[in-house]
Structures are given as C-alpha cells and as structure tokens.
User: Which sequence fits this backbone?
C-alpha cells in the first residue's frame, strides 16, 4: 500500500479508540445471537456474519497483519471445513444413536425434546463455524492481495 | 404510524439507488450501496424479519462493502466514461416491469388469509411449540429442513473454496 502515513486508517486516533471500544460488544452480541437463537431472532448464520464483521472491522482499522495475529489464517482455513464436518457429524451421530440421518430426537433416548435441542445446538455451531471462518477467510484473501 | 416510516424508507431507498446509478466515483458508490443495505435492514425490522435484518446489516452493509473497497484498491476507483446505451436500459426497464407485473398476483402484505399462512405454517408453529423452541425460524431451519440448511452450509463452503482457488497465495509466492 502506497498510502501516505497520516492517511492510513491505523493512524487515526478516533477510529482506533471507537473500534476498540466497540469490538467486545460485537463478539458478545455474536455469542448472544448464537446461543439465544432458540428463543429470539438469530442463529448460526447471523452469529457467524456478526463475528466475521467484528474481525473485518479490526482488520480494517489496525491492518490485516494485526487481524491475522489474533486469528491466524490457518485457523479459519480449517474452520470452514470443520463447520461442515460438525453438521455432517451430527447426522452420523444420530445414526449411531439409532435414528435416521439428522433425526435429532434420538440423541437423548429418554427425552425426545432434549435430543432435538442438542441436535439443533450442534448444527447451529457448525453453521457458526463455517460462516464466520468463511467470511473472514474471504476478507483475508481479498485484503491480503497486494498489487 | 407504520406506513409513513415505511414510505420514508422506500423513498430513501429509491434516492440511494438513483444516486448509485449516477455516481462515477466507485468508492462513493460502494458507500452508497452500504447505505442501501442499511435502509433495507431497517425495512426488514419493520416487517418483523429481524433475522434477515441482522444478515443484511452485517453482510450487505459490513462485509460486502469492505470487500468491494478492497477490490477497488486493487483496480481503479473511477468508472470509465461511456455513452448512454439504449439497449441495456430497455432490458432493465422490461425486467422491472415484468417483476412489478408479477407482484400483482401476490397476496397483500400482512394478509392473514394468504396461502402460506394457512397451509404449512400452522404445522410449523405447533411443532415448534412441541419442541419447546419459541423461535419458529430456528425449528424450521435446523430441524424441519435440516438437509436444506446442511446444503446451504455446503454452499458457503464451496463458495469459499472457489475464492481460495482464485485468490490463494502461499507465503512463498508473496515474498
């Protein structure tokens, strides 16, 4: 980047302070949307994009290197695949528990409703993992590409 | 009071869209598309689709804007000057007219007797109550349509794979 030093975003005090004080709430809100998805609006996808937006904001203000120091690229590369595996694995798990593929009710033999809750929690976790990692990885690849 | 707010948001959407079409400076245009996304998110909230509003605000106004800014920093930031072309305008106008004609057959906004509210929705609401999950959207997405949403995760996975194939550079190549 051949931007003059005083023009770079990371040199702007107000942006740095504002971003840093907002970021914890980004991630907290993402977790809230994730784990409150059964009761209120939201779920894995929404939580994932909010999480990724937090990382993107950090990378935008402090530079891509700083963001990759916090969340290394290899983590998100693995995370994209792990999320899909969590979801697919939940299906295998329900088959192991004697049900059909993705029949969550069988996860808790005594209690159908608990089994459903467990299954939904795991697949939502898978979506969170894939979406958050995927968005972050696309940002890293775009922003990390020099001229 | 709902109708004036929605009318105002739709008016602002229209103004933003026209501004985007007229702007030559692509940086400004991508900021305007971010505003467009934010206004649509506001409309989704008014229509009680808070899930969609979350996604629109985070992806449309946040991540997508940053990505298009990143792309602009690699290419030029000004649109090349072109003469006004008639044929594309006709195609766009016809498509828009066809879409508006299509909406004439749709049920009115908020119509309780619409087909979608009488056919499957009662089943979903009842089933969701049985599972003790108050958010019906979660039940439908994760449980009723588990395969469907699994497929969607796979689509995200495949899209990221595509981006990796096009843009990936190992550390060795970069140095």
Assistant:
């Amino acid at each position: 980047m051949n931007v003059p030093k005083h023009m770079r975003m990371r040199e702007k005090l107000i942006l740095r302070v504002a971003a840093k004080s907002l970021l914890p709430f980004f991630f907290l809100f993402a977790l809230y949307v994730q784990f409150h998805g059964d009761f209120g609006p939201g779920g894995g996808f929404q939580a994932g994009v909010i999480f990724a937006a937090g990382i993107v904001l950090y990378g935008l203000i402090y530079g891509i290197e700083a963001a990759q120091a916090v969340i290394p690229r290899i983590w998100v590369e693995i995370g994209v695949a792990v999320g899909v595996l969590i979801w697919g694995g939940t299906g295998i798990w329900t088959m192991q528990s004697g049900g059909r593929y993705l029949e969550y009710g069988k996860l808790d033999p005594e209690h159908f409703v608990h089994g459903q809750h467990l299954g939904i929690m795991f697949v939502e976790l898978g979506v969170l993992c894939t979406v958050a990692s995927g968005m972050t990885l696309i940002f890293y690849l775009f922003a990390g590409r020099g001229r | 009071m709902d109708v004036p707010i929605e009318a105002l948001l739709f008016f602002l959407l229209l103004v933003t869209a026209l501004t985007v079409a007229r702007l030559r400076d692509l940086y400004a245009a991508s900021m305007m598309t971010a505003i467009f996304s934010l206004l649509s998110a506001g409309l989704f909230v008014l229509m009680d689709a808070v899930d969609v509003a979350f996604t629109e605000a985070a992806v449309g106004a946040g991540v997508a804007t940053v990505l298009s800014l990143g792309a602009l920093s690699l290419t030029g930031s000004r649109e090349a000057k072109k003469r006004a072309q008639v044929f594309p305008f006709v195609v766009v106008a016809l498509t828009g007219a066809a879409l508006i004609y299509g909406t004439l057959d749709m049920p009115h906004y908020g119509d309780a007797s619409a087909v979608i509210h009488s056919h499957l929705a009662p089943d979903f609401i009842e089933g969701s109550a049985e599972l003790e999950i108050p958010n019906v959207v979660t039940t439908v997405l994760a449980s009723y349509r588990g395969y469907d949403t699994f497929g969607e995760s796979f689509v995200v996975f495949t899209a990221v794979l595509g981006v990796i194939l096009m843009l990936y550079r190992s550390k060795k190549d970069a140095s």
In short: Residues 5-143 of chain A form one domain. Chain A has a mean pLDDT of 87. Chain A touches chain B through 52 residues (CB under 8 Å). Residues 112-143 of chain A form the longest helix (32 residues).
